Amino acid sequence: MLYYDVDTHTRVSGRRLATYPDAVPLYDIRPDYDEWSERLYNPPATKDEDKGVEFVDGEWRLVWNIVPAVHTPEEDEAHLNEAKAAKLKEVLAKSDETLNTLAYRYSENEKLSWPKQEVEARALETNPEAPAPLLRGIAGTRGIPVAELADKVLANVAQSEQATSYVLGTQQKYEDMIKAATTVDELSFDIDYTLPIV
Fold it and tell me: Rounded to the nearest 5 degrees, what angle is found at the Cα of 174, between the Cα atoms of 168 and 175?
């Protein structure tokens, strides 16, 4: 805790209070600021005045001026690379989240069978008598024609490919934007994987 002796314009630490018995509390209330692009500056005191303190709302406070921060080119580059890495992580995480949400209604075992279902459905599309043990078994259990099930599988494949291509295309567009960015401000774009309504 700091104290302030008004008569002598002296900032006083707690250990020196005995020397300045009239010192009053000096509060350190700092404004919000961007820690990278800005820094806080407290004007130093002189023997005649102290522009680094002010009397506000019945109490003495330190004055904090916000001034531009100065960095070396190496520091600027490192900061930009850190921001790019963080943005890329966000882009990839939201891409995964979107694609995982599309498949949340299905069990893991069902998802593992999708490639085989597609192969059998395409075979049945070409030849209705083609061997398709998985789809024939599923269709028989459900009590629907295997051709109907094959059509459903291929429709789902087309829908999934459309959604996946949109999400991955959007992801890669964001990756290109990150690579091309030359300032941190250029990385402030929103990430949106909302699928278009067809």
Answer: 85
